[in-house]
Amino acid sequence: MSPEIIIGIGIAGIVLLTFVGKLLPKSQPKEKQFKCSRCGTFSPHTERTIEAWRNNKTKFFCKECHAKWLQSRPPLEREQFSSRGSSKSGCLGVVVLFALVPLVGFFLVQAYV
Q1: Quick check: 70 and 81 in contact, CB under 8 A?
Q2: Which helix (H) or strand (E) holds 61?
Q3: pLDDT tens for residues 35-91?
Q4: Which residues touch 39 (CB under 8 Å, ≥6 apart)?
Q5: Is the dihedral of CA 37, 38, 43, 46 positive or negative?
Q6: Which residue, 19, 6, 22, is CA-closest to 102?
Q7: Spatial distance between the Cα atoms of 37 and 58, rounded to a whole number of angstroms
């Protein structure tokens, strides 16, 4: 096999592993509810608290206490905290890049052969 084919297969394998990794379920906390560290009420886990749990946080806050905390922050800092979890851009660009690299390599090889 030629080096171009080996490189193309390697890149395709990486892209395939990336897709498989995205399809696998992410870890979840065992408990369905948590005790709010501020007011002490029991609340069900949300995407925000599950993501905090995945980041090894040990204190969780209910939606109301989190909203109060956000309101106490300065406007610029508040915008940073409220938009941090919702930004999921960039993955598609990386996938397209990995898909285009072997294609461009193939066309370059064909042009110079």
Answers
A1: yes
A2: none
A3: 999 999 999 999 999 999 999 999 999 999 999 988 888 877 666 665 555 555 667
A4: 62, 64, 65
A5: negative
A6: 6
A7: 9
